[in-house]
Amino acid sequence: MTDLHIIGGGLAGSEAAWQAAEAGLRVTLHEMRPVRRTDAHQTDGMAELVCSNSFRSDDAKRNAVGLLHEEMRRCGSIIMRAAAKAQVPAGGALAVDRDMFSGEVTRLLAGHPNITIERGEVAGLPPAGWRSVIVATGPLTSPALSEAILKLTGEDALSFFDAIAPIVHKDSIDFSKAWFQSRYDKKTIGGDGKDYINCPMTRAQYEAFLGELAAAEKTTFKEWEGTPYFEGCLPIEVMAERGPETLRYGPMKPVGLTHPSGEKPYAVVQLRQDNKLGTLYNMVGFQTKLKHGEQVRVLRTIPGLENAEFARLGGLHRNTFINSPRLLDPVLRLKAEPRLRFAGQVTGVEGYVESAAIGLLAGRFAALEHHGTRIVPPPATTALGALLGHITGGAEAESFQPMNVNFGLFPPPEGRVKKADRKEAYTSRALADLDAWLATLKAAA
Asked: CA dihedral in degrees (36, 42, 43, 48; nearest 10)?
């Protein structure tokens, strides 16, 4: 007998399944791949990373997403556990070998005595006999389930484009021009401050690159016209259209980097290690909707990448999400049908870590409900609580858009705190409040 059904084996669904199973629930995790494939996934593994291999900053003292990492670790996160095993050098960021990461999540889930993985699509609304369900289908929810949810809620689907960055074979990069260095020589634990490959540009080369971007042929999706991009994952050609300095203040910023010759570049293209072997490198911030032939032509104008060979070229897919502030209650239940909870990107959080975090909460909430324990959400002063509060009522429903975790979602620190100390005030308070919340849950169990 199943206590909890979870639809979707992405990061949110995997995390939800793990949390609920660890709390003693018998969980059935439904994943439609490989029976039904998506436009973005390439494997059948759980928690496959399709856009980037980075979970962004791992600084738990001064960065909101780094704080979220630490909170999830303290909550026994399977995603953070697998990320630690599959970690690759990335300066102050947490990046992973994609295949190793997904493989570890899949292995842990398949080996858990309380988890059953079922392959196949859940078409339409879950059967009425499923008394507790978490919908964690992510941005690529199947059309049948999407339509059923829309009919149930009476809402129009919100959607946005998500772009994917190219991946380059390291041995095709010209290191007479490129060099290794992390920005400001920032080190991964045990690293040497040389985690990124940097391709420098002079002003003339940068301006020529902008010209090539503007002239290149782009992929068009007429059936998706009017769908907005997510600001945190804009294609490089869209950023370039906003002004000649946009890329230099974004993914191509040269600050904190110096060529071994002592020269300061005008702009820099960075590549981050994408697999444990160090044979593949991801072009940081270079998501694009250029046609594949145009990508190869334009990207090979970058110094050091003249003969680049690509393991994967960039692409574009559509993401969808519900209007969570209007549709969900404070513990992620659908107001129109409370047996259904939602988790992950479909709730309107943006980013791998944020998606997994909402899955973590959904799994814990479902377990508390099953055991008849009062559900107490994490404090708003924590990263988990701030993110949850934003999507379940903190944001304006009329203008709701995907959001990464950031300190703007937290209540300000009490008392007078110097500007230089504010971030650490947020994080120290958050971790103390999280520990107190976890202790309360343990006592109530």
From this structure: -100
Helix axes 352-370, 64-74, angle to 10 degrees: 30
Tokens of 20: 């609920």
CATH number at residue 270: 2.40.30.260
Q: For residue 98, what is the enclosing H or E element?
A: helix 98-111
Q: pTM for this one? A: 0.82
d(CA 101, CA 82): 6
- Choose one of 275, 303, 318: the last residue of a domain: 318
310 and 329 in a single domain? The answer is no
Cα–Cα distance for residue pair 300/216, rounded to 1 Å: 13
Pairing of strands 27-31, 4-7: parallel
C-alpha 383/C-alpha 427 separation (Å) is 9
The answer to whether 105 and 115 are in contact (CB under 8 A) is no
- Burial class of residue 307 (count of CB atoms within 10 Å of its CB; 0-12, 13-18, 19+): exposed
Is the predicted pLDDT of residue 224 greater than 50, yes or no? no
Cα–Cα distance, 436 to 442 (Å, whole number): 10
Comparing 150 with 58, the larger pLDDT belongs to 58
**Rounded distance between C-alpha atoms, residue 289 and residue 282, angstroms:** 16
The structure tokens 């006592």 sit at 443
The C-alpha atoms of residue 139 and residue 161 are separated, in whole angstroms, by: 10
What confidence tens digit (pLDDT) does each residue in 106-156 have? 999 999 999 999 998 888 889 999 999 999 987 667 677 778 887 888 776
For residue 181, the one-letter residue type is Q
Nearest to 339 by CA among 97, 160, 126, 161: 126
Q: Is 383 left (phi over 0), alpha (psi -120 to 50) or beta?
A: alpha
Other C-beta atoms closer than 10 Å to the C-beta of 99 total 18
Token reading at 171: 């041995």
Token digits for 412?
Answer: 């300000």
Q: Measured between alpha carbons, how far is 396 from 391 in angstroms, rounded to an integer?
A: 9
The domain of 170 spans 163-318
Per residue in 369-385, is it b (16+ CB within 10 Å) or e — as a string?
A: bbeeeebebbbbbbbbb
Residues 261 and 344 occupy one common structural domain: no
Q: Mean pLDDT over residues 320-337, rounded?
A: 92
